[in-house]
Amino acid sequence: MIHKLKNFGFSITCFAILFKLMSWQYADKLLIVGLSSLGISYLIKVFKND
Questions:
Q1: Cα–Cα distances in Å, from 18 out to 1, 3, 37, 40?
Q2: What is the pTM of this model?
Q3: Sign of the four-CA dihedral 5, 31, 10, 8
Q4: Which of 16, 32, 40, 48 falls 20 to 30 Å from 25 in CA-CA distance?
């Protein structure tokens, strides 16, 4: 499940960067969702190893 969350975060962040470069709407929201999911996946990974 963590792997899927990380891949989801990477894909959303890539789309957010595209939206930001093209000055399209919702780029900020996509960046928040994508980077938050990446952060959550890494936090889960850190605490899972304990």
A1: 26, 23, 18, 22
A2: 0.81
A3: positive
A4: 40
Token representation of residue 21:
């470069």
Mention every residue, 6+ apart, whose C-beta is less than 8 A from residue 34: 9, 10, 11, 12, 13, 14, 15, 16
Q: Helix (H, G, I), strand (E, B), or coil: what is residue 28?
A: helix
User: What's the rounded Cα separation, in Å, for the pair 27 and 1?
Assistant: 26
- Largest pairwise CA distance in the chain: 42
Q: What is the mean pLDDT of residues 21-41?
A: 94
Cα 19 to its chain centre, rounded Å, is 14
